[in-house]
From TrEMBL:
It comes from the Bacteria. This is UDP-glucose 4-epimerase. CDD domains: UDP_G4E_1_SDR_e (cd05247). Its cofactor is NAD(+). GO terms for cellular component: cytosol. The keyword Isomerase applies. Keywords: Carbohydrate metabolism, Isomerase, NAD. It is an enzyme of class 5 (isomerase). GO terms for molecular function: UDP-glucose 4-epimerase activity. InterPro entries: NAD(P)-bd_dom (IPR016040), NAD(P)-bd_dom_sf (IPR036291), UDP_G4E (IPR005886). It comes from Roseateles saccharophilus.
Amino acid sequence: MTTVLLTGAAGYIASHTWLALQRAGYRVVGVDNFANSSPVVLERLAELASAPIEFERADVCDSAMLDEVFVSYRPAAVVHFAAYKAVGESVSQPLAYYRNNLGGLVNTCEAMKRHGCLRMVFSSSATVYGAPEQLPLREDAPTSATNPYGATKLMGEQILRDLGVADPAWQTACLRYFNPVGAHESGRIGEDPRGTPNNLMPYVAQVAVGRRDKLSVFGSDYPTPDGTGVRDYIHVTDLAEGHVAALRRLLDTPGSLTVNLGTGRGYSVLELVRAYEAASGRNVPYELVARRPGDVAACFADPALARELLGWEARLDLARMCEDSWRWQQLNPHGFN
Ligand code: NAD
Ligand code: WQD
């Protein structure tokens, strides 16, 4: 059985990917330092997998801990999720982001090299496209960083490309996620942001459940059909399957790749609000306010390359994203705690 190491394993996207990898027949071992997650996730994963799970509490910046994990489990590949991800926080605390996201990546790659494990699937982001000049976004579109978080993803991709140049035995898959939303269909795991949610769907979910009074819609004068921002929302379960497909490709086929994981379809903020109201049967009061600095009008993927290289495409629609988010929100009104 092929063993896969997940870093940041207790996080939102990793926890869903964990289940998808197990279902696909991989042995999964997870590490996380719980910087932005709860150990309760592990209990839920064991329950959903109907089996004990293998996990070590470790910081990916800690080489000695990583060595122990590699010696104990001998993974054939790493799926590297561990990172900080709040754009605004990255502007106020750039050093913490560079240390954790880039230091953690370099450290993980060094441990991989020491232990002869040269395959990595890396969590990149559509944020690397900066302000898109043309839509839909193809992988060969220009890239740029508009904040330190985005810079860590751009640089992370560069580090992996450089590794492949230095030693073609390295095989890496940079997956550029668009806007991951939704939750596992069981309602047992999902996104559990700390404090005020930065992202749209978790905020809408908290308004629908009554934890917050109303949504602030950031900008209603964008050059989009209804004036609000348009994004490519992708169900986290589809995203998880994208990782399985990428890993399979690295194990089966020589070479490295960089692909978008999106649906190819954009929805506006108001369309998402309406879909959420329909899925939840609740009102989502909102007010139109000023644009959020740094936001772009519209962003959505050309998903053709992922289909071609990975045989993967997103299946679940916006209604399903909202239904699954709502089930998670209702069953866990205060997240994991
Ligand atoms: P998340 O915060 O839920 O998951 C990240 C996990 O990494 C957390 O469990 C956290 O505790 C852990 N972690 C952070 N630093 C660590 C360290 N030094 N050592 C060990 N564990 C550490 O975030 P997520 O939304 O699941 O994102 C996963 C990855 O996908 C991140 O790399 C993120 O940048 C990327 N990404 C996320 C989105 C999104 O909108 N959610 C979009 C594009 C890319
Ligand atoms: C979506 C739309 C907002 C909140 C961010 C990161 C990106 C990636 C995904 C990691 C926009 C609007 C939002 C609110 C609103 N993460 N909005 N009211 O900005 O596309 O991407 O998460 O890699 O790097 O920047 O996602 O969910 O924050 O916003 O009106 O309270 O919802 O203006 O149009 P975004 P988002």
